[in-house]
Amino acid sequence: MLAKALMLLSGNAAASVLLLARNLIVARLIPVEDYGIAATFAVTMALVEMSTQFGLQQQIIQSKDGEDIRFQSALQGFQVIRGVFAGAMLFALAGPIAAFLRIPDVAWAYQVMATLPVLRSFQHFDIHRLNRALRYGPLLLTGVIPAIVSLAIVWPLALWLGDYRVMLFALVVHEALGAVTSHLVAERPYRLVFDRAIMAGSLRFGWPLLLNGMLLFLVMQGDKLIVGRELGMVALGIFGMGITLTLTPTLILAKSTQNFFLPQLSAAASNTDGPEQTRFEHVARAAFQAALLNGTILILGVFFLGLPLVQILLGDKYAALQPLMIWLAVQQGLRVFKSGPSTAAVARAVTSNAMWPNLLRVAAFPVIWISVQNGGGLGDVIVIALIAEALGYAFALVLAQVRLGVVLRPLVPSLLVTSTVIAAAMILPAVGQNGSAMLANLALFMLAPVLLLASMGDLRRYARTTFGPAAQRKASL
User: Model pTM?
Assistant: First the structure.
């Protein structure tokens, strides 16, 4: 089990690091304004994905029919319908999107991007079905191989084109190879079935995820839209790079938490009383604490390494990003925290749980817009978003207790320690680089991991029973 967890984390990390390297190389090779335009491609793709998100990949893991070949084929058929619809919608909206962002001459690029959701829709669902048995290799290869090729072609594209088109064509190649790779690593033949009953069931399962996808679009991309429209493409280039640097590890950690814990939580979610409920609560709290640990590691990583990495990787043209990095890291860390409650809710098919906390985040957008309209800058945008993310995480915990029956009292020590570590990471950069500050930084570096692990009783117990010697002996029998 430990080997599977490490493979999952390293595989997700490899794909994300390769894509991060691609984005960094593009940022170094093209002007900041062009990178701002390239950042709008991610916003546009997220808009399309949001509008057609039904959680089909999660459904094949969560559903009791997930091993049925007809059920899988029906989900694949629904996925193709979804992708073609999304592509047509993006093609039709290309002009209005470019006009809204005040870059009308880029409309053709959004029309090219209409191919991306269509290409993605032809991925083979075996890469998700095999996760039910904790077989993550095909899923990881489908992420890593396209990322390697997408990275490899950036330099020749930059020499040839030298502007935002580098990112556009790298995205097209990435999605095409993702679809091809998923078929090469699949075990079952690829079939498409258009079953109305299964599609109706998918809609019932997925409509809260669709609404949540809309909210997530606003949560993850709305800030960029405001910044790009009101502050310009240069500001969006700075802001977009900051999001890229902090969001990449966020996605690695959140995705790994969900992929690892969802099959186990789904298996324990069959009953709501007795030993199964106790088992579900224990694994759920372990997932919550794993998410807390992951998010805090992200924040500490940016605290200790963020500023020199920005300087080394991006140079002086992104100097304005440096004082914003720790605040962006805390904002993204809070998103990692929410992956624990969200995963537990999906395991119980309570898919609306992830939606409600994001409403609090969306409610912050009018405040952000008013702030920018009245002279606010990137720092104001980030602080307002951070406060909304914190309120959303608190609400997610409340929903986990009320709707899933997960008692939260054992989480209090880990929540207190995590809050203290985050507060220290946010305050210390303002103190300066005197002797006392250096000593405090050293203390944070040495004590934070110890205190975090000491406060996470459920996670430690879960690790012992899952990865300890007794578990390894049982697995070998």
Answer: 0.70
